[in-house]
Amino acid sequence: xxxxxxxxxxxxxxxxxxxxxxxxxxxxxxxxxxxxxxxxxxxxxxxxxxxxxxxxxxxxxxxxxxxxxxxxxxxxxxxxxxxxxxxxxxxxxxxxxxxxxxxxxxxxxxxxxxxxxxxxxxxxxxxxxxxxxxxxxxxxxxxxxxxxxxxxxxxxxxxxxxxxxxxxxxxxxxxxxxxxxxxxxxxxxxxxxxxxxxxxxxxxxxxxxxxxxxxxxxxxxxxxxxxxxxxxxxxxxxxxxxxxxxxxxxxxxxxxxxxxxxxxxxxxxxxxxxxxxxxxxxxxxxxxxxxxxxxxxxxxxxxxxxxxxxxxxxxxxxxxxxxxxxxxxxxxxxxxxxxxxxxxxxxxxxxxxxxxxxxxxxxxxxxxxxxxxxxxxxxxxxxxxxxxxxxxxxxxxxxxxxxxxxxxxxxxxxxxxxxxxxxxxxxxxxxxxxxxxxxxxxxxxxxxxxxxxxxxxxxxxxxxxxxxxxxxxxxxxxxxxxxxxxxxxxxxxxxxxx
Length: 498
Fold this sequence. Notes:
The protein is about 0% helix and about 45% strand. It is mainly β.
């Protein structure tokens, strides 16, 4: 399954991947199709066998705050939206930790990792022992199993959480929801305003223990990134080590939220991408990552691959699997069956990484076909491999809203956070590709909807593929002035043929 890894009608952001038994489970928020708001009143779960990560199945609703035709509400105390959850296993039981907007966080339990989960309790704590007003924003939970002094197995349970302030509590492992007195720790990750936005904690805490090192994956104030910090202890201090992925590089950015999961010998980072040129309708994506012997995780690029080793250029490719979108074009939803790349204007770059064209050295050319939606304008798509020659310059400023990029908070004298007098904006920058690239052909598109064809140079091996839009109008002429900023077409799908 290419990115996005779930069916294209499904919107699962804030992914928290967990392997239980011989399956990988993906828990997350649930965005509403075509919505202009974050999240929904239900949580869903998808899973795939560890030996076949291209076949995900839906386990339906696992928890919800409002009843519908098929489900009762799962909670007694609120009907607000559900945000990023986490699930952990202890002693054969599975515990769901939910963040409910503006409400007290809660813990639920199930005998199965796919749920459904039954409400157990809200967190129990003394007021001085809970940060984040007891909401437990974006909880990430670590069940730390270790060998005790007697040679047996013991465990401690920690919950990491917070919005614009990084908090941690230790939980009673017998109940999984009672906060141990005196366990509150603030600034698990540095959240002071003077810390650089690429490092400063913002939200999306997700802990992992890898070997003897504790990792905390989180969304920094530069919210298009997933950053990580490490420690020798689950209570910290955690030290910033870098970022894993940035979905604002040559893409319409937005916030990011996700985590790591090891399947066999391979580590993956799960994250999400936006749709409709908004910060909403976010869809789950995945990339392979490597963890080096010194514990560092080299940043990975966004690709179209998902769990695939490579894409097949000889099978129809849906345009929306693009991992590069510059110049103002973006993926939009026409309906449940049609998602296109729209606002394709002169100079836009649309890219896919990576295709395997095979080893056919007997052929000099091949045929290329593209399906586009017409916009009453003729144009061209330059078909290029291994670079674009484009100098992208896209900058999206942070916008307000919980779950996205809101104005930053200033540190107060007590070590907490308060609202800053002057809102801070942090750009989501595109660095541009700037590689020379090789043009293998050009296809001309017409005024209306249609399938347009051309012959291109034969290609062998593995390559990134790019389309560079060309209005093909002499702009310096008087008639050409009428075509400035004109939309050339909408890209739907394409294929190579021999």
